Amino acid sequence: MAVVVDRLSELIVEVELAFSEGRSEMEHGRIESARDHFDRAIDLLLSEPGGARSQPRLRAEFDSLLDRISALEVIALREGDGFTEAKSVPAALDDLLEAAMFERPTPAETTEETVIADLARTPHDLPIPINDKVLSYVELFQARLKDFMQAGLERGLQYLPMIQRVFREEGIPIDLSYVPLVESAFKVNAQSRASARGMWQFMLGTGREMGLQQNWFLDERADPEKATRAAAQYLKSLNNFFGDWHLALASYNAGPGRVQRAMRLSRRSDYWELTATSRYLPRETREYVPMILAAVIIARNPTLYGFELGAPTPISYERVTVPGALDLRIIAEWASVEVEQIQALNPELRRTTTPTGSHELKVPYGTAATVQAKLDAADPGLFVKFDFHTVKRGETAAGIARKYGIKTADLLAANQLKTTRLRANTVLTIPSRATSALPAAPKPTASAPSSSASTALTYRVRRGDTLFSIARQFDTTVATLKQLNSLSSDRINPGDRLTVRR
Predict the structure, then answer these.
(1) How far is it, in rounded angstroms, from Cα 187 to Cα 165?
(2) I want to staple 221 with a disulfide (CB 3.0 to 4.6 A). Which of 122, 202, 309, 363 is the partner?
(3) φ, ψ for residue 363 (rounded to 5)?
(4) Which of 408, 410, 354, 361 is nearest to 385 (CA)?
């Protein structure tokens, strides 16, 4: 008896295999490769005689496929396009102050002798007095906090060449390049309990005052070079105002207004006289300057104090210009590196996407040409389009989700909300990719190898799309879309492939 081959069953098996391969690639962060597999699955159904909706089984498979691909895109957005803010680590200064709560060790005579001899032969461009406070921190950093100091010194090797170059350009003491050793242990993603952020621990207001941009996408307080330039200029301005580097450092910690007030109340203009009593400045500021000076002493001559370090190892990278919000995993895929490497080079990014608008992104050395070529040829559909919605009084999560054509659960997840109750004036992020088509670049065929086939841009229609919404997404008009696709009406169907640009 002849075996009857169920051609539709075989087709559906092939479609499911392509979808499974795409899902696997998506799970491994290979976004473009995943889309190639998803496109193949859709094309298999669209190429069927009569179309993907010509039979009930095909229609059911097609609708299910589109829904599952949409769901995976939403998950990818949630996990990769920045709904979860990049993690921070505790700032070093908080830990150091806790350690200082214990009784500081009395400096040994040998420590004092070593420091005196060291300062006599090691040139410094910052005044460093030899007193019990400074010496006690030298002692502490060599004993109970030695592991902390070793790790910070090692971490600083990759940033110090850049920091010292910037400080020379700004004309301020090179000794001050070791301030991050105390502030953050050279951790670019450090955040204090008071919400100071980055290697230089700028507070939000001071960072903005010094030109460091902060928004939903990025926080330049965590950008090593931009924050270093801002820190150099801020320290220079403080020294110009107070005429004293010790007071400048104190005001870097406590704020210039607080130091001014302490000087006015105490009628003292010397930092050490001002901090001889607890009446005028908080304990953190009284400990801060001697802590910095002790760190400078050790960092300028680490071997003498028992620390073994290698040579400075500056970070090497190149830059590319990203024209819009793009998933960092796509860039990592183009550069053939892990996404964590892209994130490490760009700690100012608060999300795992580049900002909307043009943005300079650091990529591993040797990969810029490849990545820039990919960017220049990228389908506009790759770029994430965000809408922002300010909640009005009386609006609900369900109503807002309905307005933008997304699920309430996805709206809540996108904004890390655990409840549907919304406060007026809350700004919600709306990812439009949740309802947009999976972009599909046209593939040249043997019968149409012309240059126009390779440059045309197509778009896969998804449920809920209209000609107007597609035209707006690709900065064109409905009339142009109808002309390009020989459409006599505004009607389009999910799964249709529209030419949006030639």
Answers:
(1) 19
(2) 202
(3) -130, 155
(4) 354
pTM: 0.69
First to last CA, the chain: 54
CB neighbour list of residue 428: distance below 8 Å, 6 or more residues apart: 388, 389, 390, 391, 400, 411, 414, 415, 422
Q: What does DSSP say about strands 89-90 and 427-431: parallel, antiparallel, or unpaired?
A: unpaired
Q: Give the CB-side neighbour count of residue 331, counting CA atoms within 13 A.
A: 34
CA distance 94 to 194: 10
How many whole angstroms separate alpha carbon 378 and alpha carbon 368?
15
What's the token pair of residue 465?
């799309």
3 state SS of 301: coil
Nearest in space to 459 (alpha carbons), one of 448, 446, 451, 469: 469
- Catalytic residue at 21? no
Q: State the Cα–Cα distance between residues 427 and 392, nearest whole angstrom.
A: 10
Closest CA relative to residue 355, chosen from 390, 381, 386, 378: 386
**Helix segments in 125-178, DSSP class H:** 132-142, 146-156, 160-170
What is the per-residue pLDDT across 447-489, written as a single tens digit (0 to 9) for each? 333 333 334 577 777 666 778 778 766 767 787 888 888 887 7
Cβ pair 290, 271 in contact under 8 A: no
Query: Rounded to 10 degrees, what is the CA torsion of 146, 149, 151, 153?
Result: -140
Structure token digits, residue 344: 């490490």
The one catalytic residue in 25, 73, 139, 183 is: 183
E strand or H helix that includes residue 361: strand 359-364
Strands 427-431, 386-390: pairing kind: antiparallel
Phi, psi of 90 (to 5 degrees): -60, 145
Q: What is the pLDDT of residues 52-94, one digit of tens each?
A: 677 888 888 887 887 777 666 655 655 554 445 667 777 788 7
Contacts of 350 (CB under 8 A, 6+ apart): 82, 85, 86, 216, 217, 218, 219
Which one, of 383, 417, 379, 380, lies nearest residue 397 by Cα? Answer: 417
* β-pair type (359-364, 317-322): antiparallel
Q: Reduced to 3 DSSP states, what percent helix, strand and coil does the chain have, rounded to the nearest 5?
A: 55, 10, 40
Looking up tokens 């600083």, which residue turns up?
A: 156
